[in-house]
Each structure stands twice: as C-alpha cells, then as structure tokens.
Amino acid sequence: MAGNSVGSGERTRLRRRSFLTHAGALGGAGLAGCLSFDSATTDGPAAELIEEGFAAADIEPPFETTIAITQDEERNRFAQLLQSELDETGFFDVEIESRDFGSHVESMLAAADTEENAIFVSSWTGGWDPSNYVTMLFHSENRTPNGLNVGHYENETVDEYIDAGLTETDSDERVETYRNLQNELVADSPASFVRFREATHVWNGDVVNDWQTYPLQPGSYYAVYAPWAGVYTELEDETEFVGDLGSDVTNSDPVEINGVVSSQATALVYEQLVGIDFDGEVQPMLATDWEQLDATTYRFSLRKGVQFHNGEALTATHVKRSLERYEGTTRESDVYDWYENSTVIDDHTIEISCWREYGPFETALFNVSIVPLAAIDGEGEADHDLQTKPIGTGPYRFVEHESGSHWRLRRFDDHWFAGDETVPATPPIETVTLEIITEQSSRQAALERGDLHFSYNLPSASLSDFEANDDYGVGRRVSGGFDMILYPCYLPPFSEPSVRRGCNMLVPRERTLETVYHGIGQVAYTPISPLLEDYAGESFQKTIANEYVRSD
Questions:
Q1: 14 within domain boundaries
Q2: Does position 381 have pLDDT exceeding 90, yes or no?
Q3: pLDDT digits (tens, 9 = 90+) for 281-294
Q4: Whole domain around residue 102: which residue ranges?
C-alpha cells in the first residue's frame, strides 16, 4: 500500500530549506568557465540561474527540447509565447509538438520511463481540499505510472509537508503547513504554475432554465440533476439535453480515470458516500449519516433502497469492495493515502478505519465511486468492464459511446431520490447527450447554430460577447483548476533546480492571461487555487511571486 511506508508518528515541525544552498556552494561562475556559452545571453537573474544549472549538468547550449501540448488553439498560443522566451536566452532550441488528448496523457504517463525530452504543458483540476492540488502531482511515492508525478520529482521536504498536511486536523496548522509546502515547491520548481482557471459555462437561454455553475470542472454536468446538492435543471419543451466534451472519453472506470473529460462524462453515472455541493459543503449521498468513533475510525449508515444500474442492491459490501479495488491502480492514492480496512456491521452499516489521522477524510470520500460487485469480482453475473461501460447508482445510466462522436446517458427511473421541496423525484431531463468536439471554435459554432444547448470552456475572447447577448446565459466562477508546465526532472538539464527556477521566472504569465485568455482567470504562482482562499490568498500569492518568480 502507498500509505504504509510513511508511518503515523507525531508530525515534526519543518523549516523551509534555502533554495540555492547547494547551488551556491558549487560556485556557478566558476563552473561556467568550463563550457562555452557564446550562444547564450546571461542577462538577468533567470538566465544566470539557467547558466548555473547548465554548468552543473555539464551541458553546452543550445539544448534542444520540445514543448508538448494538446491540440488546443489557446494552448498553442501559450506554447509559442513560452518557446519565444526560452529560445531568446540562447540556452534552448525549442520545438512545439501538438497531440490529441489521449496521446498527450499516454506520453506524460510514460515520459520518465522512456526519458522523453519534453516539457509538458497541461492542466490540473484540484478539489475542495489543498491536498488535492499537490499530493498526486508532487509526492515522490506518486510517480507515474501509479500516480501522476510525471517528472518523477523527488524532494524529501515536499514529501514531509504533504504527509504532515494530510495528517493535520487543526485548520490553522493545516494552513501553515500548506503555505510552507507551496514555498518549497515554487523554490524548487518541478512545475511552473501559469494561470488559475475559471469555470465558464454558456447555455442557450431559450432552452435551458436556471443552470448553476459548479466550480470544479469534473462536476460541470452536476447541474443537470444533483438532488444531494439541491440542484436540477429544466428544459423548455425538450427532454434531451445536448452538451459537449472537449475530447474523447478514454476510460470510464473510476480507479483508472486520469482525465477531466472522463470524470465529466461519468459524473451523473457514479455516486459516492458523500458529495460536496456548489458552495463547498459536505452533503449526504449514498450515506445518510456518519460519526467519528475515534481519531481514525468512522461509522457510516447507508441509504436503503439504492439500486445499481445492473439491478444490484447497494450494501456495505459494495462500499468495502469498491474501496479496496483502488489498490495497485492509477488512482490508488485516492484511497490508500488513508485507508486501512473496513468492517461490515450489517447490510447498511460500515465502519471505515484509517491507518493515520486524516484531515481531508470527508472530502476524500467524494473521490471514491461505489460500483457493483459485478465489476469487482463477477458475483451474480459475468465480469463487467467499467472501462468501456460504467455502472453506478446515479440518476443517469450509460447508453452508448461512439468514439470521437458522442457520449449518451438516459434517465435511471429507479434512482433512490424520492423528491423534496427543492428537487423533483424524477429528473426533468430524460436524455443527456454530450457531443465530442475537440476544437473550442467548433464548440462555439455548434452552440451558436443551436446544435448544442450548453458548452463549457469556450474561447476566452468570446465570453464577453455571450455575456452581452440576452439569448445566452453565462456562468463564471473561480475554479479548482490551473494551467501548468511540468518539467522532466529525470532529465538533465531539467534535473537541476536552478534551470527549472530560471525557466519559471521566464514564463510570460501576465502576457498569457491578457493576450491568450483575454483576462479570464488569474495569474498563478502556486498550485493551490484561490477557491481555497485561506491557503492561497492574494497577499500570499504576491509574496511568493516577489520572492521566487519575479525578476524586476
């Protein structure tokens, strides 16, 4: 298990290390004399750091490398800005390679094993807890392929801060820990954080009524029908809702999903013990209530009368087996960062034990989908593959997926919700069709033609026009997502922290926000979104930027 090697002893107070301790001791100027830097310009602190790292790695510029991006117009414009900044130093000779989303993800997962020479431009969607923004990406135990630490970054202090943040239950202490962690990460720069994203939703105002914008991108379609959050949507004179997805669905098994789009496509299919509503509050879902028995043990009462889409009735055994199937998978740390074991008390009562005190326990459960036994061990029928056909307890069941074309769901008439004064017992929308349209401009055109009722993440330059048009509704909220650059820490010269930090200083954040995204979002210097204001407020961001990133 991923968690067992960490231990659960008393947390040690850590002090942030000085970033340049070892680099300064080497004497960058002396090392530089061993190589020829005639092609490079060492004008300014960023270039000086890069020169220092090239010398330490014994690499003579220009170093040829690639910026790897998904096929996206805005992403391509940003890559061109970054390419220009790096090339102008003379230390780099950069090409841009554009890949479809599936190939991009596959390349990132295999990059360290193949020692791919590429800087990956990607995005990440965190959640309602600060651990969601750092654990999977930067803890050394979460290196690919069993995690998403793409660069195989290792930093003992970062690991200790991440572990301390997970075990800390005092809110003030957690804020201090995660602020110290962000200091360390930006100083060491395994990634450059470029922009905090906004959740931007646009819908046809003549068809869609009262749409609510969920701030986290995996939940883009919760507004269709989320009775646990008190939210649903109606259509004018129609029963089929047509939205879109920005890429194909590559995997629909919760333990293997590693992309936002697959999470969006399955959000109405799978359910969890608890949900987190549109305001960040924990709400009952498949569990009706729960209590903490001691520091590491919780007892849950399960909702009665819940059916899976294949006819199985929900029991505590489903919860136990769903938790345990995460072991050894891509999403293992979602569970095994905290899970020790569970005890079935009866069909509708389960006790879950953690191997350590775990601060974000309730929010972590929102990441764990409960699935039928047929998908786990074949009990009752032949083994079922969730990778191609998801089965859950949600208000919509999977109907079909035509690769590159669409993803379709239909209302599950045996859903457990009986209705209340806020949400009707039956979803007003009968069918949910999500068209797969990879280009933002094409998605916008489809919405304007009336082929779509709803689209998310449209070109930033178009949002102001939609906001000014009474035919459309627009929802904008600060989100849990950020755009970033992942450096190949396994490969010289990017194995040198001074090179990564120098590159981090060169990232044209303000220009990118203004010219590529037309002011949609916020400049990012740290990984934790301002959605969690205590951990990443404006003054903290400014302090980090002044200390580690800005060169003026």
A1: no
A2: no
A3: 999 999 999 999 99
A4: 39-197+480-549
User: How buried is residue 183: exposed, middle or buried, by Cβ count under 10 Å (0-12/13-18/19+)?
Assistant: buried
CA gap 107, 103 in Å, rounded: 6
What's the domain count of the chain?
3
Tokens 């989303």 belong to: 101
Flag whether pLDDT at 412 surpasses 90.
Answer: yes
Beta-bridge partners for 341: 353
Query: Residue 15 falls within a domain, yes or no?
Result: no
- Asked if residue 280 and residue 371 are part of one domain, the reply reads yes
Q: Dihedral of CA 346/351/352/355: which sign? A: negative
Q: Same structural domain for residues 188 and 217? A: no
Strands 63-70 and 92-99, sheet pairing: parallel
Q: What CATH number corresponds to the domain at position 275?
A: 3.90.76.10
Exposure class string for 126-157: b at 16+ Cβ within 10 A, else e = bbbbbbbbbbbbbbebbbbebbbbbbbbbbeb
Contact yes or no for 320/301 (Cβ under 8 A): no
The alpha-helical segments, DSSP class H, found in 346-430 are 361-365
DSSP 186: H
Residue among 177, 156, 157, 138 nearest 360 (CA):
177
DSSP calls for 127-180: -SSGGGGTHHHH-GGGBTTSSSBTT----HHHHHHHHHHHH---HHHHHHHHHH
pTM (two decimals): 0.79
Q: For tokens 């990443």, what's the residue?
A: 536
Q: Please compute Rg for the chain using Cα positions.
A: 24
